[in-house]
Amino acid sequence: MKITETDLPGCLLIEPRVFGDARGSFFESWNKAAFAEAGLDLQFVQGNVSTSVRGVLRGLHYQWPNPQGKLVSVLDGEVYDVAVDIRRGSPHCGRWTAAILSGDNHRQLWIPEGFAHGFVTLSERATFVYQCTAVYDRVTDAGIRWNDARLAIDWPIAEPLLSDKDAVAPFLDAIAIDRLPESIA
To answer: Is 61 assigned a catalytic role?
Structure first.
């Protein structure tokens, strides 16, 4: 597998080795030993799958306390995936990175604890998969408004389909400091 650090330290683009022929393709989406050898000694405790139609934007989500690291990928379709460093005290706080993830390119994005995450579906339909380092905790579930001007995320859509919760999520500057993750660096 090929691992490339994004412009946000710790947030990694992962490209697995894909073996294909006339029947289709095969790749390992997760191998504990291989990831540990590459410096990612991860312990996943929950796996999730969501499906979305074109124009659905999910996010920007995070948990604090009880943060989740996420290994995200797309099985079918295509999404524009975004990670935002929201760790107070981080020199990169408020910065974001994005990648196109699709069932065709097999890319994965490692989103470390302390980052908010979201994606918008670019294809007619997408099946999104993510492995988490902590279980979902409704009490610590939080979000940031997708179109926060401070973040200035270059979303490839102007009017996404949003959940009621995401439509009214607060802007980053309106979130109490103790409700944001702390930087450990």
So the answer is: yes
